[in-house]
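Thread title: Can someone regenerate the structure for this chain?

I was given the following input by a collaborator and told the matching structure tokens would be attached. They weren't. Posting the sequence so someone can regenerate them.
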Amino acid sequence: MYDLIGKILFAGIIFSVLLASLALSVSRISLNRHVWLAGFFSNVLDFFYLPLRYFFVQFSDYRVLDKWMSSMKNIAHKSDFSKTKNRIILAPHCMRALDCPAYSTKEGIQCKACGKCVFTRMKKDAESYGYRLYIITGSSFVRHVLSADRSIDGVLLVACDYELNKVMRGLNGKNVVTYGIPMERDGCYGTEVDYNKVISTFEAFKFKDSF
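Best answer:
Regenerated them for you:
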């Protein structure tokens, strides 16, 4: 009896390792091209995230894992995100100018469009494409924003790979569809996003009445 249980456990471990390895390979490929079953493999990596992250911390860079996972989630969510109607864009306050005059509220930083950083342009462009811009100081603001407006069904994220993956995982199954734009440089301040990627994403999911 115990011998049988041991064999079953061993087979389960081997199967889990093979499945996680296959999901990792697919996620790496997703950086350069479309992959099939992206949603399934995203769920596999979500399930094994903690042990995989430990492995990457010990032998590589955990940010690589988050980059692969967020890339595959974008592929998995692309079709559903295109069908959303009430969208917001969440961006980190670390992209602000150091002398930003904006003030903070429970809904994030209230941009004054002073022209000192990218948010002046992003706010204007976001509104023209049908998004509301929220500049947040932490992932805890995400749930507050969503709870304040239950009609939100699409969330476009601008963040580092770790935060992208974290928020995408956290909102999985929460009746919203996420899509992410990774920043070019992360950190606590002076971070940057390739604005061409922002515009191309707006264009890719443009509403028919947007301009």
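The CA atoms of residues 126 and 139 lie 20 Å apart.
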